[in-house]
Amino acid sequence: METILSPPFSPLFNPKTSLSKPFLSLPHLPRSNSVKPICCSLKKQHSQIEKDSFSVPKSWVSHVQQGLAALAISLALNLCPVVSSGSALASEFDVLNEGPPKDSYVVDDANVLSRVTKSDLKALLSDVENRKGFHINIITVRKLTVSKADAFEYADTVLEKWYPSVEQGNDKGIVVLVTSQKEGAITGGPDFIKAVGDTVLDATVSENLPVLATEEKYNEAIFSTARRLVAAIDGLPDPGGPQVKDNKRESNFKSREETDEKRGQFTLVVGGLLVIAFVVPMAQYYAYVSKK
């Protein structure tokens, strides 16, 4: 190994020893100055191939094809709001056709519920289903476009579509929240309605869902509604709904009595100023004349 590597590298360190030692390694190889590096030649060939490939002009047919493809994509984006906006025109129909969720109790088509809320809902609703046998589905949609414009009618449609027979939907409950309309609805089978009660159903629909949805607190609206329904099924006291904020603005206009009172005070002040303005200069003038 030493004799093979000594000729090309030893002259840099000791030229005399390199001349005295015999050249035993590969005597038929050409000298180092005549050897061309293989990697450099490959790079040159590769660059030449790339240059030749880029130098070939494209035909007019390829340009036409690319233009037609770009035109087709542009028309698709303009004519199909599903692609451009990322939301379906009739997402409520997708919910109807997909059926009830298998792995969870939530169909968040409006994409407003957090992961924590979905996890809490799954734990709460699975617990009441295991204990009481009532299955509650939560549905959120952005808006009702083509189907029923009323959230209650849409909730009934979902119940009939998902559970066609009375036996299937007897112990099922459906909670619907429409985020754009800021309204919600609750429906269910006969046993579910009886277990919850009309009082709690009316309260949740008129308090929890619309009030919190108006404030865009969708997670709280859904979870508080589910907790209120579960409490009613378990026979526990009603936790109640959110307090409605009184947004009534106070009027800046004065009443008639206040206006008359202010007007009398204003008349007295103005009269006093007028008396002072006339009487004081006249008294000063009289005093000045009398001295002379």
TrEMBL record:
Q: Does the keyword Membrane apply?
A: yes
Report TM segments. 266-288
Domain TPM residues, every copy:
106-231
- Ranges of biased composition (kind: Basic and acidic residues): 245-258
One Pfam match, by short name? TPM_phosphatase
Quick one: where's region Disordered? 237-258
> Which domain of life does the protein's organism represent?
Eukaryota
Entry keyword Transcription regulation? no
Q: Which UniProt keywords apply?
A: Membrane, Transmembrane, Transmembrane helix
Among PANTHER family, the record links this protein to:
UPF0603 PROTEIN YGCG
Name by which UniProt lists this protein = TPM domain-containing protein
